[in-house]
């Protein structure tokens, strides 16, 4: 009867709440926790149950000690083994599956970063769960809000999977703070994994500028900079402000800067305190990556450019005149 169905589903909800617990995959590089993982840990605390954090790789112990001092983390699980370096999805997914099984976690979370986007779908497939990607809000333990159509619509998704596999949009949640005490750190015996791929090497673009995804100030240039030399105008202003450099896809495609700088639907999602868009028209695909910035400044020679519709401050004029003058005056 409908009555008995209601009763059993209500009972299921109560039981699932009592047993609810989260497992967060913590990203790290050079012994530093990836800032986005701090936001993901915060999101995990919203479920109310205990939060465990998984840290994997060689020397993972050092990062684990930092994670143990984060607010809301009840336990850190360490897989201290060089096999987990470079976060290859086919190696990390079985590890995550083994740890999820040991911890009985009902919610497994990672950042919606290139790493999280690589590992979690494989893990979700291993445990036969449907991943919920890029969440910006947690309504309850099974209901989440996520942007679709480049952020033009918000979708509310309810999952009936026993284990929820979730990637988190870091800009939508604050970061966990540190605490005075340290939570326990536990070793996990890594499962036997045979990788079909080998890590050969990586080319990392080194720079003194802050990381684009977590910078407080971002200065971005668009097609209008016209050249690699023109893009230096953007870099100089960013350096003066101690900010990160971003770009529109048109600037990236034209080869004015590296594609790791792309902001937007197919680039990075940023929400700094200050975003300065220079010579960028404001196409929806670009807005999808920056419209949640606290203060938006647009510099564009066309007063009717759509970027001015989202800008808090606008400067109409030629960037080649305005930006060097601005940089000098700051
Ligand atoms: P334009 O649209 O050409 O704008 C240049 C602007 O500069 C104009 O507003 C012009 O008035 C102004 N200007 C020109 N000269 C000057 C001057 N001297 N001084 C001041 N202003 C000047 N785009 C992204 O940015 N990020 C994405 O992630 C992204 N993903 C996409 C995904 C898909 C599936 C598709 C179809 C498109 C995507 N795009 C993305 C592309 C997007 O649609 C736009 O084409 C792109 O953002 C335009 O870049 P722009 O604003 O630099 O160039």
UniProtKB/TrEMBL annotation:
Source species, domain of life: Eukaryota
GO molecular function terms noted in the UniProt entry: electron transfer activity; flavin adenine dinucleotide binding
Cofactor info, note text: Binds 1 FAD per dimer.
UniProt-listed Pfam families: ETF (PF01012), ETF_alpha (PF00766)
Annotated localization: Mitochondrion matrix
Transmembrane annotation, as ranges: none
GO cellular component: mitochondrial matrix
Cofactor: FAD
GO-annotated biological processes: fatty acid beta-oxidation using acyl-CoA dehydrogenase
Record keyword Disulfide bond present: no
Main localisation: mitochondrion
Subunit structure: Heterodimer of an alpha and a beta subunit.
UniProt-recorded name of the protein: Probable electron transfer flavoprotein subunit alpha
């Amino acid at each position: 009867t409908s009555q008995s169905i209601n009763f059993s589903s209500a009972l299921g909800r109560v039981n699932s709440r009592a047993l609810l617990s989260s497992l967060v995959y913590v990203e790290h590089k050079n012994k530093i926790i990836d800032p986005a993982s701090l936001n993901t840990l915060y999101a995990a605390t919203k479920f109310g149950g205990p939060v465990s954090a998984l840290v994997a790789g060689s020397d993972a112990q050092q990062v684990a000690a930092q994670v143990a001092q984060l607010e809301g983390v009840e336990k850190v699980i360490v897989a201290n083994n060089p096999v987990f370096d470079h976060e290859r999805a086919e190696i990390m997914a079985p590890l995550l599956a083994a740890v999820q099984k040991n911890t009985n976690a009902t919610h497994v979370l990672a950042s919606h970063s290139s790493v999280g986007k690589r590992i979690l779908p494989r893990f979700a497939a291993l445990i036969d769960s449907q991943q919920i990607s890029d969440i910006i809000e947690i309504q309850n333990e099974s209901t989440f809000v996520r942007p679709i159509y480049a952020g033009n619509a918000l979708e509310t998704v309810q999952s009936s999977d026993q284990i929820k596999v979730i990637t988190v949009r870091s800009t939508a949640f604050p970061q966990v703070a540190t605490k005075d005490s340290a939570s326990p750190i536990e070793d996990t015996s890594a499962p036997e994994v045979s990788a079909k791929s080998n890590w050969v090497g990586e080319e990392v673009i080194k720079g003194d500028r802050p990381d684009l995804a977590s910078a407080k100030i971002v200065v971005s240039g668009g097609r209008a900079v016209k050249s690699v030399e023109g893009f230096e105008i953007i870099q100089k202003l960013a350096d003066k402000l101690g900010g990160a450099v971003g770009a529109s896809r048109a600037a990236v495609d034209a080869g004015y800067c590296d594609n790791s700088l792309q902001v937007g639907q197919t680039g990075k999602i940023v929400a700094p305190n200050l975003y300065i868009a220079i010579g960028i028209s404001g196409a929806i695909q670009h807005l999808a990556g920056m419209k949640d910035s606290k203060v938006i400044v647009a510099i564009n020679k066309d007063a009717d450019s759509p970027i001015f519709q989202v800008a808090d401050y606008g400067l109409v004029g030629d960037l080649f005149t305005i930006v060097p003058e601005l940089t000098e005056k700051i």
